[in-house]
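I am still getting used to backbone structure tokens and would like to learn alongside you. Label the sequence line and the structure token line clearly, so we can match residues to local backbone shapes. Would you write everything just below, so we can both look at the same thing?
***
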Amino acid sequence: MKIVRHGESGRERPGVIDSAGTVRDLSGLIPDWTPAELVPATLSRLRTLELNTLAPVARDTRLGVPLHGIGKFIAIGLNYSDHALESGMPAPQEPVVFSKAISCLTGPDDPVMLPRGSMKSDWEVELGVVIGRTARYVAREAALEHVAGYCLVDDVSEREYQIERGGTWDKGKGCDTFGPVGPWILTSDELPDPQHLRLWLEVNGTRRQDGDTAHMIFPVAELVAYLSRFMTLEPGDLIATGTPAGVGMGMKPPQFLRAGDRMTLGCPQLGTQTHAVHGWRHS
């Protein structure tokens, strides 16, 4: 099942995508897609629906973040050896963990806004993992049982703030609009093995990233188990699992996003995002 939320920002309604790619409205059956609807019983009930009986949504309707009420936005750094190499850092012995601010979440085709004075904002296509069951000290062998589904994430990053301004990475990761998610969450029953997904990203039509989750240093099951040792993972928590090589920081010379650029990224199973890049403006 492909979970979506459709409508203008702040007024999204729950939906699902049928086999023909049509968004169908679910607002008569559930109030919204929230962590409470990710429990197995609710997902099982909704999977039995005859989707062609649900009202279709106009094709040009905006899609928002596919889950309302994400609790934690956890991210993993340097999880592909080729990306660690291009970053000039050794491959980690344990997962590198940081957080992205919930306020950075934005829809899959919404504009990305560069922070005021930013000169080193960068792109990172990633696999997102959505938790569906509480995970606390789970074994790796059971970790995927706690996953509700998977989605596409663009871990947009301001490298000066992240690396050159002292402290942790977080300040370069949580700027407004730096967390595009979607267009949908694909439930885990339709993706039993998340380690064979192709991820790609283009800037202004030029392919910059083209990787595969098979090359993760720490696969999804290991990440969920690892994180559950240090924090309780709850339904609705989102994990961005790291990016393959091809980020702007790793280019020679480095290249970064500028106002007027256009990012497009995707995964065959998880859809496509497209973002116009805007300069900072006060709202």
Helices lie at 40-47, 81-86, 159-164, 220-230. Residues 220-230 form the longest helix (11 residues).
